[in-house]
């Protein structure tokens, strides 16, 4: 392996460095990144690089803490540069509704209901058209049809029952959207 220490020495080195410098290294990395998880990753990578350069650290050249803090700062800088070099990610646009899919089912449902409406009585059909297709209130439908509101309500009840019977007779299922 050349410049990497033996596994026993490496484990001892990492334990010693972490015991002596781990807290200050983590605090420093957390201040630089603003994110505890990212700081922990930086500390881990710093200790890995310390293990790889154990001979340099053991040689007594300079401060070990200074070396570790410099490596941590460089790692944070490298990560920031890497993020800046990547194009910005585009977030989902929340204010736009999703693109509608195939509308063929609603077309088929409309055709089935229109065919079924042709089979109910004209009074029932008129009240359903006024309320459901034209979106009128009971009072507006009553005025348009020239009947009292109570009549509109009762016709609606019986019209829906008749419409359901026609649809059941045809064994047609209309999906509800």
In short:
This protein is mainly α and 177 residues long. 72% of the residues lie in helices and 0% in strands. It contains eight helices and no strands.
Please tell me about this protein's structure.
- This protein is mostly helical.
- Helix content is 72%, strand content 0%.
- It is built from 8 helices and no strands.
- Helix 1 runs antiparallel to helix 2 and helix 7 crosses helix 8.
- The radius of gyration is 38 Å and the shape is rod-shaped.
- The chain starts with 6 loop residues before the first helix and ends in a 7-residue tail after the last helix.
- The relative contact order is 0.08.
The oligomeric status of these chains comes to single chain
Uncertain ranges: none
What spatial form do the alpha-carbon principal axes imply? rod-shaped
The percentage helix is: over 70%
Strand content: under 5%
Nearest-angstrom radius of gyration?
Answer: 38 Å
Tally of contiguous helical segments: 8
Topology (elements, then pairings):
Blueprint: H1 7-33, H2 36-52, H3 54-58, H4 64-85, H5 104-117, H6 122-133, H7 138-145, H8 149-170
Helix pairs in contact: 1-2, 1-4, 2-4, 6-7, 6-8, 7-8
Salient structural properties:
single chain; 177 residues; mainly alpha; rod-shaped
């Amino acid at each position: 392996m050349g410049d990497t220490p033996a596994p026993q020495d490496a484990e001892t080195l990492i334990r010693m460095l972490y015991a002596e410098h781990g807290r200050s290294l983590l605090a420093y990395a957390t201040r630089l990144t603003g994110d505890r998880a990212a700081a922990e990753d930086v500390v881990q990578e710093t200790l890995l690089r310390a293990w790889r350069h154990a001979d340099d650290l053991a040689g007594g050249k300079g401060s070990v803490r200074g070396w570790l803090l410099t490596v941590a700062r460089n790692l944070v800088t490298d990560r920031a540069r890497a993020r800046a070099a990547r194009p910005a990610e585009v977030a989902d646009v929340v204010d736009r509704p999703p693109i509608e899919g195939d509308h063929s089912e609603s077309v088929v449902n409309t055709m089935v209901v229109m065919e079924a409406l042709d089979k109910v009585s004209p009074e029932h059909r008129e009240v359903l058209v006024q309320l459901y297709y034209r979106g009128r209130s009971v009072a507006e439908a009553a005025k348009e049809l020239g009947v009292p509101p109570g009549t509109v309500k009762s016709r609606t009840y019986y019209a829906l029952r008749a419409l359901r019977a026609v649809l059941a007779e045809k064994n047609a299922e209309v999906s509800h959207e």
